[in-house]
Known about the structure:
mainly alpha; 8 helices
Amino acid sequence: MTAFLQQTQEAVASELQLGSDNPERRKLLARLQAEITSRGVIDVLRHGLKHDQGYQNAKKNTPDTARLEHDQALQRVMVSLLKDDTELYKHFVQNESFRRFLTDAVFTLTSM
């Protein structure tokens, strides 16, 4: 998968630092795995990974509400992961410092 991204989307692959083991790479792989599990390989290949549209619109049109939209989008993602990664969901729900860390990290990565 990383070789495909590096060959077809060099800027994205570079930004995510896919050549080394790091949090961004692990997040992408976890998201990809969750999407493949829920939608299937063919659907992911045909339609790709989608961004939350509400959050994307808020970033463009109403930056003041982007953080609120982001937090709601992340909550929806975490709920969708519940069936595949109950430990991650459990940490997100029960551990305030982990939730704050993950929320801030994802917001920083996606608000660029």
